[in-house]
């Protein structure tokens, strides 16, 4: 970032004052190098992502887009509508960048019926609540039924994916990013309590990692479950299918569901089922066995194995695409992950005219278990006043070339 004229003036007068106080020699030997180092440091830190206009919602609200870049050429674009991840460009084994997430070119696309939660922050309660009902502190609450006969992803009009958030660009020792914040009024989409939520995306300068951090606080007890709903295709968005992607999940167990995709309450072993991804398996290898179920493929919550330590996010999933060599490793502080194989995608037209066909993208949604508010044996999702909810999900990208010890080129080529 360039220094302003006023900054340079104040630097000059500081210099004269220092010369008067400590003498010219001292200035040359000690003060100048310190000043120089400080200037260099502040230049390196001064690159907060800038807001760009992305368009307006149908209701006339301006939406901003922020571009985060790291020193390796990785790029993430995030917008204020739904605190959404819009683009994510990562290098393949030859350093070639591709955008590996689904999205639209404009706000109208995101507001259309084609948008199956692409890249958004889902909530207040991500995934399903059975029949849209729960009881908390003796009071029964009714929510919108937007996925017959259940409530899905926080509701219809004012769920977290649909509102426009405030944004604060960041540039700090962890990297460049944006902190989105939104205060949801008491009763919005039927949920109790005024809920203040933040979602922070950070791209470290030297590593191909995207961190997504969440915080939430409330003035009344209320259920929350926050996730990012990015659809990945590591060959690039718009590529044909994810059947050839190889997946490993750090989960011995999952939560079986009824035919409306609500957990039965049981926690079952993946052993002997098509849900066994304890060793890396091709997604397409057993997906047909699930084609006749209500989910039409994979759409299950996996119970993550206990973390080895509680000071680091726990390994959740490793996804690998042989054709590009890209590998995505997801770690999280959340107890579960929803693996959804894009079964309800039906050819929506997305960014750059790309078509998003059935099972051409997959979601790995780190989360608390679906319908936890009605399942006393699942980990708690009720946030109490005075508590702060925090959570971290880390998306780390590498390639098979890195793994083979050949580092991918420092400055990747531009995507075609
Ligand atoms: C989640 C659900 C799926 C589906 C998608 C959105 O992943 O589990 O059943 O509703 O969101 O289309």
Architecture overview:
Helix 1 (5-22) packs antiparallel against helix 2. The longest helix has 22 residues, at 24-45. It is globular, with a radius of gyration of 24 Å. A hairpin with a 5-residue loop joins strand 23 and strand 24 (326-332). The protein starts with a helix and ends in a 13-residue tail after the last helix. It has helices at residues 5-22, 24-45, 107-111, 400-403; strands at residues 51-56, 62-69, 75-79, 84-91, 97-99, 121-122, 128-129, 133-136, 139-142, 151-152, 166-172, 175-184, 195-203, 209-218, 222-223, 227-228, 231-232, 246-249, 253-255, 268-269, 281-282, 299-303, 314-320, 326-332, 336-340, 348-349, 355-356, 362-367, 382-383, 389-399. The protein is built from 4 helices and 30 strands. The chain binds alpha-D-galactopyranose (GLA). Alpha-D-galactopyranose is lined by residues 116-117, 127, 152, 261, 299, 338, 340, 344, 363, 365.
Catalogue the unreliable spans.
Answer: 1-15, 38-45
By DSSP, the count of extended strands is: 30
From the N-terminal CA to the C-terminal CA, the straight-line distance is: 29 Å
- Gyration radius (Cα, Å) is 24 Å
**CATH C-level class of the largest domain:** Mainly Beta
Strand order of the largest sheet: 11-12-13-14-30-24-23-18-21
Provide the residue-averaged pLDDT.
Answer: 90
Shape: globular
| Helicity, as a percent range | 10-25%
The number of helical elements comes to 4
Can you list the ligands bound to this structure?
alpha-D-galactopyranose
Tally of discrete structural domains = 2
Quaternary class: single chain
Main sheet specs: 9 strands, antiparallel
Strand content: 25-35%
Could you name the CATH topology of the largest domain? Beta-galactosidase, Chain A, domain 5
